[in-house]
Amino acid sequence: MYKSFSMELAGRTLTVDVNRVGAQANGAAFMHYGDTVVLSTATASDKPREGIDFFPLSVEYEEKLYAVGKIPGGFNKREGKASENAILTSRVIDRPMRPLFPKDYRNDVTLNNMVMSVDPDCSPELTAMLGSAIAVAISDIPFDGPCATTQVGLVDGGFVFNPNAAQKAVSDLQLTVASTREKVIMIEAGANEVPEDKMIEAIFAAHGVNQEVIKFIDTIVAECGKEKHSYASCAVPEELFAAIKEIVPPEQMEEAVFTDVKQQREENMKKMREQLEEAFAEKEEWLAVLGEAIYQYEKKTVRKMILKDHKRPDGRAITEIRKLAAEIDLIPRVHGSGMFTRGQTQICTVTTLAPLSDAQRIDGLDEAETSKRYMHHYNFPSYSVGETKPSRGPGRREIGHGALAERALVPVLPSEQEFPYAIRTVSETFESNGSTSQASVCASTLSLMAAGVPIKKPVAGISCGLVTGETDDDYIVLTDIQGLEDFFGDMDFKVAGTPDGITAIQMDIKIHGLTRAIIEEAIRKTREARMYILNDIMLPCISEPRKEVGKFAPKIVQVKIDPAKIGDVVGQRGKTINAIIEQTGVKIDISDEGAVSVCGTDAAMIQEAVRIIKVITTDFEEGQIFEGKVISIKDFGAFIEFAPGKEGMVHISKISKERVNHVEDVLTLGDKVKVVCLGKDKMGRISFSMKDVK
Known about the structure:
4 domains; eight-stranded antiparallel beta sheet
């Protein structure tokens, strides 16, 4: 027999049905938020997966197009691979929940969220986030929850929790915050230059709402929660740690990791592992977990060096940023390029401009977003970290990093009216040692300005790390973390923005949450670093967007016509517009509002196409001068085509001031002539005169 639980959440009813469906999963929550319905399930394997040294958690967010009354396109007519939105939602669910599972748990766990109905005013993504937390909380899977998630908008200066579709459309903030009872565990934000103080206020306003949701989850767990099952711990034996320290004392480990060259550190650790493998050759049970033991020993060493000694592995001060460099125009013939280097992290971003018709079409559950004109793609090849593996296309991490950089730059892009282009930036990772996503924000800003995209302000990004001790006030926040500090630290707090505010945040942690003091310090330090990067590195390289797009970029001229005349430009079955395109070699896009964008590389041909369009859409008045081509000759006169699909007649008496006996005596097919409009004849046809042209 199932039980149903309800609460009012941001003015709408959230209902959770337990034991109604999915009874064979370890935990299942049938979620209803308004008319949005999501089935969230949590399942775990009976035994740990052998041969791994990580927690095998898989999070899925499945978008079913029947949820919005659509049949999938294409031949297959069924849902295919996960959309970008589904991947990003899965990541947002994964990031806060993963640290709450036991560190030594090796059983496979899958969190599945199936979207079955979508109410535009009740976010299916938020519903899935809450559903996953509830499904695990009521299951028998070990979990140090519950946790809850709230979305925050900023409309007319005020906060809106879990905004509806109309509020999202005008919001200056898209913030998602996850919390446990005590602390914030995940932050994801896109913002229209929201000031740091306002962002902090929004984060903790969401944290307050999360506490109400957690109380609601507690009531469900109290009635329906299963007893958590026991599991085989994969912890490293203490006697192995003791044996390792006898062979490699702490000072030797410290010396191995204390270098600013990643390759040297890796070589040091490789030699150390070989030494230990030789020493423990007779102990197979130790060899099986030796890698994890070395990892934990190195981690403890790095954390102690930072927290107690204030020594970073590469010798930098706590707030010191690695050596920076900015460069533009390093790739010829592309529309724009920029490279940003921070220590051993190096990103090259290439910008491509195209007509608006090349904007990406989106076929998903969000009816409000059907296309986007700015696309940021991020690539992370194996050579960037000195590894070898085949390229299989972007994974979830690459898609997530690209979306973060895209979110950071969207607020400063010009409108379609100001700059009628589709824009794609591609960030190629040449070298990686920490926070490539924020380096790609910097490189993309350089590339966009070099390409002549009139962005409103430059954007820079930086990441802060964290090492914590035994108590909440025993911690240290690190500016510009490198890879080792990310791997062994407790936080990766990425912030991008302009001098006037934040445009994007993404916070990942490996502990059970952050206090307000840590979050405030991290936001303050990222701002200080951001201003240094902008003012001292990026702006001296290129101070403002170039006034014009490059010579290899397409040129676009936009003209406005009466929407009622769109049919005249297009012509029957596209005959007129295709003739213009064939004649001039341009590309033409027309919006429903009558905005005509003419795109090409030949400026003269662009202007010719614009002239033709203006001619076609101009109401004919007596006295107008046109230039046209003779397309037909009759006994009584000649027909002149002055634009594709548009023609008028010159009567034989209007061809010349002297008497003309035969039209062929003066005109031949294909002749180009100037004519003046005389108005329309009795049959409604346009009449021209050649002899009256002044």
